[in-house]
Design brief:
By secondary structure, the protein is α/β, with parallel strands linked by helices. It is 26% helix and 26% strand. It folds into 2 domains: 44 residues, no CATH class; 243 residues, Aldolase class I (TIM Barrel, Alpha-Beta Barrel). The chain has an 8-stranded mixed sheet. It has a 3-stranded antiparallel sheet with strand order 1-6-5, with no helix packed on it. The two termini are 36 Å apart. The structure holds iron/sulfur cluster. The site of iron/sulfur cluster has 12 residues, from loops.
């Protein structure tokens, strides 16, 4: 449904949306790049408040979040639209759709919270970019907090500081996609830019939100040794060596059907680079990968959390500490 939006200002008879770094200038009757925020009679409206394209109870491991309430289920909601135009988007049928082009169910915040409480431990805003759903995400996340349910964003990290400040008050965890360390990749493949994404990663972390990072390894586009090293070095410098990262395999989608899937060898290569650079919690996704999905203590190597597919079992932890050596593990339980 439509609702007056937050995060905009009037500028020379037009509207400037200040929700994400595109800062779209929107004329009367027009929409921003995301396709879900419209100027109507000089006011900005969100067209997707409570409008859901998808709703599922998922294992938290599927987001992926491996160090956040392992083994729990999260009620996952998505809508339509995106502030990116990724040529390889897996969910392009919703991310590139406008609200009038896709069947949407109305789930108001209180209904969403009721559903969550029935079957899950928390709520995730995912499937398409949650930043552009900010008004709804804020209201729903506030209610979730009151009910002791956790809240999650799975995001591209393209958000301005004020909304990031606001949502961080009610968010427990985010998984941010860092798609490349190259601005030209972001320009050409996503129609966006790199720097705001990196700022959002440490911005969320600095505000106390649990952060995990996902890097989708795309053959010949972001998989060079230099670029993977650059990513790992940036992670260590800005987020620390205990930062959780996920390297995931690309499969051909949407407008990148001509690019082959990521080989296991390439993914293992990224893993080896990350470990050599000094990162402790590195995981592989979208491939059968055995040991590369388990959590081992960064101090003594003890098996702490065993995973198979999307199931997780805590093996040897004493609260947040390793059951063997007593080292504090960066995990939210
Ligand atoms: S949220 Fe949408 S309308 Fe607002 S600046 Fe970003 S792309 Fe433009």
């Amino acid at each position: 449904m439509e609702k007056e939006a937050k995060y905009w200002e009037e500028r020379d008879g037009k509207i400037r949306c200040t929700l994400c770094p595109h800062n779209c200038i929107i004329g009367e009757g027009k929409r921003g790049i995301c396709g879900v925020r419209e100027n109507r009679n000089g006011k900005l409206y969100t067209l997707i408040y409570g409008s859901c394209s998808s709703a599922h109870a998922d294992p938290i491991e599927k987001k992926p979040l491996y160090h956040f309430h392992p083994g729990t289920f999260v009620y996952s909601l998505g809508t339509v639209g995106c502030n990116f135009r990724c040529l390889h988007c897996q969910n392009y049928t919703i991310s590139q759709a406008r609200p009038e082009e896709y069947p949407l169910a109305e789930i108001m915040p209180e209904d969403a919270i009721k559903r969550v409480a029935e079957c899950c431990d928390g709520i995730a805003f995912t499937y398409n970019e949650p930043t552009i759903w900010m008004e709804y995400a804020l209201d729903t996340a506030k209610m979730a907090r009151e009910k002791n349910l956790y809240t999650v964003f799975v995001t591209n990290g393209y958000i301005n500081r004020e909304p990031l400040d606001d949502i961080s008050r009610y968010l427990d965890a985010v998984n941010v996609d860092v798609k490349s360390m190259s601005n030209s990749f972001y320009r050409k493949l996503c129609s966006a830019s790199l720097e705001p994404v990196l700022e959002a990663c440490w911005g969320y972390k600095r505000r106390g939100v649990h952060v995990e990072l996902t890097y989708l390894v795309i053959p010949s586009h972001n998989d060079s040794e230099e670029e993977i090293k650059k990513f790992c070095r940036w992670v260590i410098k800005e987020m620390g060596e205990l930062q959780v990262i996920h390297f995931t395999a690309f499969y051909p989608h949407y407008r990148m059907m001509n690019v082959p899937p990521t080989s296991l060898k390439k993914l293992l290569g990224a893993y080896t680079i990350a470990k050599k650079e000094g990162l402790h919690y590195v995981y592989l996704g979208n491939v059968p990968h055995g040991d590369y999905e388990n959590t081992y203590c960064h101090n003594c190597g003890n098996l702490l959390i065993e995973r198979y597919g999307f199931s997780a079992k805590i093996m040897d932890m004493d609260g947040k500490k390793c059951g063997k050596c007593g080292e504090e593990i960066p995990v939210v339980l």
